[in-house]
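Record format v2
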Amino acid sequence: MLMGFPEDYNDRVKRINEYLMRSLDVIEDKRLKAAMAHYPAAGGKRLRPLLATIVSEAVGGKQEKAVPFGAALEIVHNFTLVHDDVMDEDDTRRGIRTVHAQYGVPEAILAGDALFARAFEIVSGTDAEAEKVVKLVEIMAKAVRLLAEGQQMDMDFEDAKRISSDDYLKMIERKTAVLYSAAAQGGVIVGGGTEAQEEALFEYGRLIGLGFQIWDDVLDLRSDQETFGKPVLNDIRNGKKTLIVVNGLEDMNALERKQFLKVLGNRKATQDQLRMARDLLEDVGAVDHAVMVASGLVAKAKDRLSVLKESKHKEALKAFADYMVTRKT
Amino acid sequence: MLMGFPEDYNDRVKRINEYLMRSLDVIEDKRLKAAMAHYPAAGGKRLRPLLATIVSEAVGGKQEKAVPFGAALEIVHNFTLVHDDVMDEDDTRRGIRTVHAQYGVPEAILAGDALFARAFEIVSGTDAEAEKVVKLVEIMAKAVRLLAEGQQMDMDFEDAKRISSDDYLKMIERKTAVLYSAAAQGGVIVGGGTEAQEEALFEYGRLIGLGFQIWDDVLDLRSDQETFGKPVLNDIRNGKKTLIVVNGLEDMNALERKQFLKVLGNRKATQDQLRMARDLLEDVGAVDHAVMVASGLVAKAKDRLSVLKESKHKEALKAFADYMVTRKT
């Protein structure tokens, strides 16, 4: 029975999770292994491995062939979470203690590095022609390098006076979208697709990745902690210069801007102040605008799927794209 | 004119350095790039890339072909230094400020990650058959994973009551030797050597790597800051359980052991106390014993070179091995 995305893939997510956890068995030291497994074991939607496997099917390949590459990207994602949390000095992530809060900063740095190394070991063991494996390694290594540049931009933005919406989009392309474009491109490669498909699916992944992040920024303002699974209005408190904030600031009058900037990045702001700041963004239409931008990106992403033959997998990729900007969590 | 090792390779080291620094040009963000280049730009002996290139020649290949892989290992080495310095909270390294002391902890974590990613990008671009490139990626990824396990052991040892010499050797095999065995094995692969040569040179690299680390422990006790290029008697102050300390403790009488343990790991120890502790290690012959062990490892390493035809490159590898345990710095 078809239930839609992502429910149709519950079994596959289970198998991906098993693969993920098993891939850490090679680590001998118990403490290191526990720190490495801390986030992967806490669950997650596994969108990146799911994407890689569905794309592989959509180009006529087997879904299993994409599991190692997809899992490796998921491990890379987890490694960046571990290190980002150290850099941001966050003590909790989605209701659990962060790795460094639980195991200490040195252990967290090391666990991140070891996850990173494991990801490349996994990719290099992909069951495919050597030329393809080399390509997968290239894609993943470049993605991680760009992730680091994105994180750098994110840190630079905190002190920057003026950020444009282009700056923001460039930053999230690197910090968020690269793993989706890599997942989709890698799926084409292991699935045996054409170069045109590779290019189109890379772009599809990039666009839904951008949509995903902008939608995340929306949820931070419009959701509540129980539904979202993490504290809301956090981006305002942390002074994040999201697309919504960038556009909102442009459209506020001088008085509104002054009020808003008093709250943005003020870690001691009260809930009332945070809500006031959110209302200012809503009032000038900046949140609605972001929703429109995210939907537009996803629509463009779906256009790119014209390189694929009709199939239920192609339909799944459309549903996948829609899910990125309709999900509640 | 032959001057011996490493002087004969001064020009090659220059070219390796140019390659290394050029490989960071792709980084867009100036601050990130500067943090990444901080250690590579400070120089170094480049033993790992040198080893890879000489081995490549020794099996009949071209030395240039091993430069990317060797440089990638050097970048990995630098990345581990950046992160290790954060973990150890060291403010200086060989007379310069550490990356986190200069740029802050978040930047240092990120710069290390970006170096790591670049290393894999470089290896994946190696000019060789795809099968060989995949093997190089596997070797490097496994090496980094083992490096993390070695660093974990090193941290665990600080709190451990009793460390055996086997524990110590297992730790330095991971923390130091893996990059030498990887360099030598990789050199055989790009140079087009046989499987028997691959196995033998891996072991050669492992043995000289162990010798290198034990000799480093000796220099910390027997050298002076000017000659060694970094503060001496540091391992005692930091409570490192080196082979010398492990063996020394076994051979001291109860009173000596009590005196020694008062100084080991005491960050406030005076120079006089540190010298007294060193003298205790010398008196029971633990330093001489370590010199013997290191020389024995290097002799065994040179035996492994019997898989190579006679050539000046083979002679260079013998000189390389000897250098590991005779160097002053």
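DSSP finds 16 helices and two strands in chain B.
Chain B touches chain A through 46 residues (CB under 8 Å).
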